[in-house]
Amino acid sequence: MPNRAAIKIIQNRHFLTTTPEKSVRAVAAHMRDNNDSVVLVVTPEEGKLLGICTERDLAFKVLAAGLDPASTPVEAAMTANPQTISPEKPFGHALHIMHEGGFRHLPVVLPDGRPIGVLSSRDALGLEALHFFKELDQKEVLTEIL
User: Fold this and answer.
1) What is the crossing angle of helices 91-101 and 122-145, to 10°?
2) Over 90: is that where the pLDDT of 84 sits?
3) Side-chain-facing half-sphere of 123: CA atoms under 13 Å
4) 49 with 84: CB under 8 angstroms?
């Protein structure tokens, strides 16, 4: 499972983007409305990745710092120039990058800098669950045979 390409994990999955001048309040509402905990910050013209902003960033860098969410641009809360992974790289490589960097989200980016999705450490749980259910099915088959 960790050998699956990143593109296979994120295909057909939506992800959120915003531009750096949007207010933290608008971005937080966008995240809430889409039930997502991360947004990629991109250039307005080309859509190239500038940064990543998570709900944790919003809480710690804006709310805990006493900044006004309505007037603070998301650029002030994002992590600029985040580590990324290319679509063909294995998911196991992404997990290693996230573990080493101490973060939970990793943008998947094309060679031209445009993001096509976001991997999450939670994706590993989905793979483990899939493996668990396959194993459970095999045990049931064996039980029936015996």
Assistant:
1) 130
2) yes
3) 26
4) yes
Task: Report pLDDT digits (tens) over 25-81.
Answer: 999 999 999 999 999 999 999 999 999 999 999 999 999 999 999 999 999 999 999
Tell me the two tokens of residue 98.
Answer: 């996230």
pTM greater than 0.85: no
In a domain, 1, yes or no: no
User: Token pair for residue 74?
Assistant: 């998301």
For position 46, what pLDDT does the model report?
96
Q: Indicate the helix (H) or strand (E) that contains 86.
A: none
CATH of the domain at 82: 3.10.580.10
Long-range contacts of 19-23 (CB under 8 A, 24+ apart): 19/43, 19/44, 20/50, 20/51, 20/73, 20/74, 20/75, 20/78, 21/73, 21/74, 21/75, 22/73, 22/74, 23/69, 23/70, 23/71, 23/72, 23/73, 23/74
On whether residue 115 sits in a domain, the answer given is: yes
Domain of 41? Answer: 6-145
